[in-house]
Amino acid sequence: MGHKTFERGIHPSYYKELTSGKGVVTAALPKVVTIPLQQHAGAPCEPLVKKGDIVQEGQKIGDIKAFVSAPVHSSINGKVKDIELAQHPGGARVLAVVIEGDGTTREWKAEGTVDLNSQSPESIRELVRDAGIVGMGGAAFPTSVKLAPPKGKAIDAIILNGCECEPYLTADHRIMVEESEKVVWGLRALMRATGATKGFIGIEENKPDAIEALKKSIGLSDVQIIILEAKYPQGAEKMLIKAALNRKVPPGKLPLDVGVVVNNVGTAAAIYEALVYKKPLIERIVTISGNGVRDPRNLRVRIGTSFEEVINQCGGLTGEGEKEVLNGGPMMGIAQSSLTAPVIKGTSGITVIDAGAIKPEGYDPCIKCASCVHACPMGLMPYRLGDYGKAKMLDNFKGWDAGACIECGCCSYVCPAKRPLLQWIRVGKYFVRKEAQRASSK
């Protein structure tokens, strides 16, 4: 103990040993990929191809002129089989480009050295956008937008998030161990793009091999590693900024309001590949873990590969009985209704757990014990938000500052009555968004 951290939060059981010591393996090239045109926060892309078109690996197949958006690219060589509504791991059905591969692939490598000092901030931002890079920790916010703060908002610090506090996930851990030089180079590119003079990598104490690898890659420079306590949700932006720099992001404000931009370590590595290899974001490292999969591992997976195909490359599901398959980890992940859902840019993990071990038979009434209040890292009252969200009492829901909830799931985890508070809060947020959409359309 004694490392930096934030107030409140929880210490869930960790199962990282299932995959943390296993090197990344490249998954088999998929025969068919389904690439959603919305894999990011913001405006969905419009298709740039049509059924029957021949496409190349890395070719842009969807884009839109909206500022908050990110283009999507073909992850394989092949032919556009269809453009149709398809299952999205977020739960909805969205327009997607289905590509049938021809079995060939492309080698991405450096075309020469890239001197960051010769790159203008504008050119870096443009290359990052053209590569379709988004936050790869799960939120999938377009990175180019983060690198273009409004006038009057000066950025002095970049923090790379290497915490990876979800109990099962180790994709970021392996990136830091195996691709530490790319991570550090990407951080310096982020600093160049924003004019930040200080760079930090926040990493929890339970990843000593990653800490050592990063130290070797950094050498003597202005980049600093900040070792943090292993606690959930240490990797949430506001928690990380408070723990690392002791800066508090005010309610309703963004990290840039306190002079900070936070990016995931995987995002930094993807920026390296975009600037040095000219490679768009067409694949990512995914942790496949849990007691419901035979051979937990970290795979480098092409975007658009189905969950079913990825799980099969890890030996398939274990034994009998119902399984819960999550896009992400058990704390914030979204349960899947179908394994046809594809891996997207924000899929940091696929967690497979025996349903009987995690699904309570029911829940009890709230006893006002305040366990959820004591755990909430945002200092909210989750028991009230849960009740108002479930009942769709939207004025009360908003009045208790529901917008500040980061959906970390600490409240559900600690509730002795096993009340699905996070689920109810998400329901409330959904109806708030619907209400806002109706109001804006009038």
Overall description:
The protein is α/β, with parallel strands linked by helices and 442 residues long. Among the domains are: 16-21 and 110-277, NADH-ubiquinone oxidoreductase 51kDa subunit (Rossmann fold), CATH 3.40.50; 371-441, no CATH class. Helices cover 29% and strands 19% of the residues. The protein has helices spanning 121-130, 143-146, 171-178, 180-194, 208-218, 237-245, 265-277, 307-312, 355-358, 371-375, 382-391, 394-399, 410-414, 421-441; strands at residues 25-26, 32-36, 46-47, 54-55, 60-63, 72-73, 78-87, 93-101, 157-161, 198-204, 223-228, 260-264, 283-289, 297-302, 323-327, 334-335, 349-354. A six-stranded mixed beta sheet has the order 1-14-13-17-15-16. Strands 2-8-7-4 form a four-stranded antiparallel beta sheet, with no helix packed on it. Strand 7 (78-87) and strand 8 (93-101) form a beta hairpin. Helix 3 runs parallel beside helix 5 (208-218), helix 4 (180-194) crosses helix 5 (208-218) and helix 4 (180-194) crosses helix 7 (265-277). The chain starts with 24 loop residues before the first strand and ends with a helix.
